[in-house]
Write a structure and sequence with these properties.
The chain has about 220 residues and is α/β, with parallel strands linked by helices. Helix content is about 30%, strand content about 25%.
Length: about 220
């Protein structure tokens, strides 16, 4: 897979390193030429000293052949522009954007070309809630500009879903269980998988169906 990363700071560099070690073809855009020269000695990825907000720079670097773009600069405005150009000018199939300031989260949606937005403060909050919350629905990630969410719930003793097979739970059409974590072990969910108290259930759900899913897992 070919991945283009906009931003050669600590975040972009860490992503580039991990993807490179996983065998992906990685291209990194960074405006600071001195930083580019230093990074080239550290990582075995392709570096481009250019502004990723300029169409000509993206075109010259071969953005049209990229599978995924990660807008990971420290500036939300730049990340939005990069996302929009990647999607509209080069038809990149998947665009992931970093949200630096939570107040700007609402902008990172399909109209700006963003498929998945990642807000570090929001993610940390969700992880804290996930670690301490039993019997409550916690949003971990959002997709399609907030139209769909990955949510997690740890089943409490009084959960209506405890002791039921997944196939017997009346899930709305816009929701599906994607994983169950039981005793620190991943359980691939099937129709006959019986949910137990203490299970961490991860569900992909649209915003409209979230309330219904909450009612299935949590006793009100």
């Amino acid at each position: 897979m070919k991945v283009a990363i906009a931003g050669g700071g600590s975040v972009g560099t860490a992503i580039a390193r991990d993807l490179h070690l996983s065998g992906h073809d990685v291209l990194v855009f960074e405006q600071d030429p001195e930083l580019v020269e230093r990074r080239r000695q550290e990582l075995g990825v392709t570096w481009v000293a250019a502004d990723a907000c300029e169409v000509s720079s993206l075109d010259a670097a071969g953005m049209a052949s990229v599978d995924v773009v990660v807008a990971a600069t420290g500036d939300d405005e730049d990340n939005l522009v990069i996302s929009l150009l990647a999607k509209q000018e080069f038809a990149v199939p998947r665009v992931v954007a970093r949200v630096n300031h939570p107040k700007n989260q609402w902008l990172f949606n399909e109209s700006w070309g963003v498929d998945v937005s990642v807000s570090t403060p929001q993610l940390l909050t969700a992880l804290v809630e996930e670690a301490v919350s039993v019997g409550s629905l916690v949003r971990l990630l959002q997709f399609q500009g907030g139209a769909a969410h990955l949510v997690e719930v740890t089943l409490a003793d009084d959960s209506p879903a405890a002791g039921m097979a997944i196939a017997d739970i009346d899930f709305p059409r816009d929701a599906t269980v994607v994983a169950v974590v039981r005793d620190d072990r991943l359980v691939v969910p099937r129709g006959d998988t019986v949910l137990q108290v203490g299970d961490e259930v991860l569900t992909l759900v649209t915003a409209d169906a979230e309330a219904s899913v909450q009612g299935l897992f949590i006793d009100r």
